[in-house]
Amino acid sequence: MTDTDRLLRSRSFVELNARQRAQALLDAGSFLELLGPFDRVMSPWLPQQGIVPQADDGVVVAKGTLNGQPLLVAAIEGAFQGGSMGEVGGAKIAGALELAVEDNQKGIPTAAVLLLETGGVRLQEANLGLAAIAEIQAAIVALRQYRPVIGLIAGSVGCFGGMSIAAGLCSRVIVTREARLGLNGPQVIEQEAGLDEYDSRDRPFIWSLTGGAQRHASGLADAFVADEASQVREAVVTQLAAGEPAQPRTRQAAHFLARLGALGNDCEQLDAAGARAVLKGDVQ
Question: Among 120, 183, 224, 266, which lies 20 to 30 A Cα-Cα from 134?
Answer without folding.
Answer: 224
